[in-house]
From TrEMBL:
Keywords annotated in UniProt: Aminotransferase, Pyridoxal phosphate, Transferase
Ranges where the Aminotransferase class I/classII large domain occurs: 38-375
Family label: Belongs to the class-I pyridoxal-phosphate-dependent aminotransferase family.
EC nos: 2.6.1.-
One annotated GO biological process: amino acid metabolic process
One family name in Pfam for this protein: Aminotran_1_2
Broad class of enzyme this protein falls into: transferase
GO MF annotation, one: pyridoxal phosphate binding
Gene3D superfamilies reported in the protein's UniProt record: Aspartate Aminotransferase, domain 1, Type I PLP-dependent aspartate aminotransferase-like (Major domain)
Required co-factors: pyridoxal 5'-phosphate
Full protein name: Aminotransferase
Length: 399
C-alpha cells in the first residue's frame, strides 16, 4: 500500500514562486567571480563598512556579563527605551518603550506587521518601484498588491492623487518607503501627513519603512510619526542594518499604536521568542552613541553618490538623477538598450560589472539599472571606466 502523500501549506507554496530573472544577472556574476573572473559586484545594498568597533566591543562585554539567555518577546527594555528616545527626539509625538517591539531585522518586523494586519486576498497599496524584499513578505501573507507608479520625471516623487485613487474598500494597508529603495526619494512631510489623515479616515493602516532614515544627503529625514497628526493607524519600521553597518546583527523594530503592540508582541513570542540579549545591548549602545560613525559613513556614501552621478551623466546615452538619500543610484538606460535587463546582461557579459535591472523593483524602472553605493570609490571608478569603454565601443559600432 502506498503511503498517503505529504503536503505543505499554501503559504509554503506561495513562497515557491519562480526565481526572478532579475537576480539571474547577480547569480551569474557570483558564479563567474568564484570561477576566478574579474567581476565587480554593484548589486547588493549591504554596507561595505565593518560594524563600528565600539559596538562590537559592547556585544563582547555583554556576552561576558552572561547576557546570553532568553529575553522578553517584545525586546529588552534598554533597547526599546533607546529607540523610544530617538523617536521622541525626532517627532512632536512623545514615544515610550511601550510603543516599540524589537524584531530580528526590518524584514522580520515587516513580516510580523503584515501577518498581524492582513488576511490572504487583502489589498495593500504600494508605490512602484518598491524594495524587492517586500515580495516575499507579501507572498507569505498572501496579500494582493496594488502598485502606484512613482513620478519618474520628478525624481521619483510620490503621486498623491494616484495613491488616493488606489485606496478602495478592499485596501487594508498602505506601505511607503522613505527614503526609498531603489530610488533614494524622500517623501515630504506634507505628503506623509496628508496620506496619514486620508488613510485614517478610511480605516486603512499606513506603514512606513524608514531603514535609510540616517542616510540622507540633502535634508534631515522626517518620519511618518513626526509628520502625522494622529498616530492611530501609523506604523513605523526601522533598523540598524544600513545606518550602522549592522546587517548581519539582525536588529529591526516597529513603533506602533497600543492596539497593535500586543499583537506584535504575541507574534514575536510565537515566532522568534526574543532576540539575543547581547545583540540588543550592543544595539542600544549603537543608537545612543552613534553620532560620529553614522555621519562618517553617510559622508562617504554621499561622496560616492556624487562621483557616480557625475560620471554617469558625462557618458553618452545614459543618465542619472541625484538621489536625495539611501544607498543606490538609478541609471537610465532607455537610449542605449531595449530594457534595463538587457543592459545589465550586456554590461556583465562585456565588462564583468554586475548591476540590478530596474524591472526587479517595478514597471516604472524597467529601463533603469540600480547601482549600489556600497563599494569604495576606486572600485566604482574601475566600474565606471569599464562602462564608459563599453558605451563608446557600442556608439562607434552604431556609426
Ligand atoms: C527598504 C528596505 N527595507 C528593509 C530592508 C531589510 O532590512 P533588514 O536588514 O533590517 O531586514 C532593506 C534591505 O535592503 C531595504 O532596502
Amino acid at each position: 500500500m502506498s503511503a498517503k502523500p505529504l503536503s505543505v501549506s499554501a503559504m509554503a507554496h506561495r513562497l515557491d514562486g519562480e526565481a526572478s530573472e532579475v537576480w539571474a544577472v547577480h547569480d551569474k556574476a557570483l558564479e563567474r567571480k568564484s570561477a576566478g573572473d574579474d567581476i565587480i559586484l554593484l548589486c547588493v545594498g549591504d554596507p561595505d563598512f565593518p560594524t563600528p568597533e565600539p559596538i562590537f566591543y559592547q556585544a563582547l562585554a555583554a556576552m561576558k556579563r552572561d547576557r546570553t539567555h532568553y529575553s522578553p518577546a517584545e525586546g529588552e527594555l534598554g533597547l526599546r527605551e533607546a529607540i523610544a528616545d530617538l523617536e521622541s527626539k525626532t517627532s512632536p509625538h512623545p514615544c515610550s518603550a511601550d510603543d516599540v517591539v524589537v524584531f530580528p531585522g526590518a524584514t522580520n518586523a515587516l513580516f510580523s506587521v503584515f501577518s498581524c494586519l492582513c488576511n490572504p486576498g487583502d489589498e495593500v497599496v504600494v508605490p512602484d518601484p518598491m524594495y524587492v524584499g517586500y515580495c516575499g513578505v507579501f507572498d507569505a501573507v498572501g496579500v494582493k498588491t496594488v502598485p502606484v507608479p512613482l513620478l519618474a520625471a520628478q525624481n521619483f516623487a510620490l503621486d498623491m492623487d494616484a495613491m488616493k485613487a488606489a485606496i478602495t474598500d478592499k485596501t487594508v494597508a498602505v506601505i511607503v518607503n522613505t527614503p526609498g529603495n531603489p530610488c533614494g526619494n524622500m517623501i515630504p512631510q506634507e505628503q506623509l501627513r496628508e496620506l496619514a489623515a486620508y488613510t485614517r479616515e478610511r480605516g486603512v493602516w499606513l506603514i512606513s519603512d524608514e531603514v535609510y532614515s540616517m542616510i540622507t544627503f540633502k535634508q534631515r529625514h522626517r518620519s511618518l510619526r513626526a509628520s502625522a497628526e494622529s498616530l492611530d493607524n501609523v506604523i513605523m519600521v526601522d533598523g540598524l542594518s544600513k545606518s550602522h553597518a549592522m546587517s548581519g546583527w539582525r536588529i529591526g523594530w516597529v513603533v506602533a499604536p497600543p492596539a497593535l503592540v500586543g499583537h506584535l508582541t504575541n507574534m514575536a513570542g510565537a515566532s522568534i521568542f526574543g532576540c539575543p540579549q547581547f545583540i540588543q545591548d550592543a544595539a542600544a549602545f549603537a543608537l545612543r552613541y552613534d553620532d560620529y560613525y553614522v555621519a562618517q559613513m553617510r559622508d562617504e556614501y554621499q561622496k560616492r553618490r556624487d562621483f557616480l552621478v557625475q560620471r554617469i551623466n558625462a557618458m553618452p546615452g545614459v543618465s542619472a538623477d541625484m538621489p536625495d538619500a539611501g544607498m543606490f543610484v538609478m541609471m537610465n538606460t532607455a537610449k542605449v538598450a531595449t530594457s534595463g535587463q538587457a543592459f545589465a546582461e550586456q554590461l556583465l557579459a562585456q565588462t564583468g560589472v554586475s548591476v540590478v535591472p530596474g524591472a526587479g523593483f517595478g514597471e516604472v524602472t524597467e529601463h533603469y539599472v540600480r547601482i549600489t553605493l556600497a563599494q569604495p570609490i576606486p572600485v566604482l571608478t574601475d566600474a565606471m571606466d569599464r562602462l564608459e569603454t563599453m558605451l563608446s565601443v557600442t556608439q562607434a559600432a552604431a556609426g
